[in-house]
Design brief:
By secondary structure, this protein is of the alpha+beta class. It is about 30% helix and about 50% strand. The chain has a 6-stranded mixed beta sheet, with helices on one face. This is SnoaL-like domain-containing protein.
Length: about 120
């Protein structure tokens, strides 16, 4: 594993742990004001928009929800995860995220999921 992959793995581990804990402050440490999250509803830029995105997501997947990591792949400064989740609010049989890093920060993050509301 090269240095870039080690950093990417470290950032993804931090991000996924913070997400599982619904810890918004910790998640935001992985982003900068220049970071973007690309969603099916359009791109979000900056910490305020990213913060709101995750706050909304936490309503759908609160801490303690079932979560299955289907795939985690890292190559250089890119990480990809495929996952599934089930909560009292929604079933998500498939979700994907791709993370593009510069150094130890996520600069672009794509996210999409197939969501069945309960």
């Amino acid at each position: 594993m090269n240095t870039n992959e080690a950093i990417t793995n470290e950032v993804l581990s931090h991000h996924l742990t913070a997400f599982g804990n619904n810890d918004l402050a910790e998640i935001l440490k992985d982003y900068t004001e220049e970071s973007q999250v690309w969603t099916p509803n359009g791109p979000l830029k900056g910490l305020a928009a990213i913060s709101q995105f995750f706050a909304d997501y936490f309503l759908t997947i609160p801490t303690g929800s079932a979560f299955t990591m289907k795939q985690l792949t890292v190559s250089h400064q890119v990480g990809y995860v495929a996952w599934a989740s089930d909560s009292a609010i929604a079933q998500i049989p498939m979700g994907t995220d791709t993370f593009f890093l510069e150094g130890d920060k996520i600069i672009v993050h794509t996210v999409a999921d197939y969501r069945i509301m309960k």
